[in-house]
Amino acid sequence: MPAIKDKEVLIALMQKMYWLELQMEQMGTWEGRLEMMDDNLEALEILSHDSDRHGSIVEKWLKKASIQIPESTPKGLPNHILNFEGLSSPEMFSMIVKYEILALNAYKDMKNADPDVIKALFEKEDDLEEFFEDLEQLIRDEEKHASICKKQIGGYMKVKY
Ligand SMILES: [Fe+2]
Q: Which superkingdom does the taxonomy of this entry point to (predicted)?
């Protein structure tokens, strides 16, 4: 994918990611409703907790760039992304991993955006540096999340008594 060269495209992507992280954080609410092995629960908890943290990071940058915080589903995202009803745990993590990879690619795209477009969002030099540091952390986390999911997909299920 060519680097983002349009400020509006970058803004829309940041808003979309804020919303996505918020939705991903919600997957923690399924913990009590699903019969899972401890290993699955632990994975879900990490993913949910990190998404909460990621949402706050993206929110920080939206605020610094004076971008509106989305209050409803941004264009291009379905209203309810995570519905695990009736899914086995490998199916559930197969669903989650798609969004982890989407997030990973989105943060990479943000990092690789045209530097002039990024500079236009944040005036301060310090902000620019911190923005890139945060994106690097987000990319590392999403890589970790994708591999956590893959491990759960590849595992086997046990019946919980
Ligand atoms: Fe994630």
A: Archaea
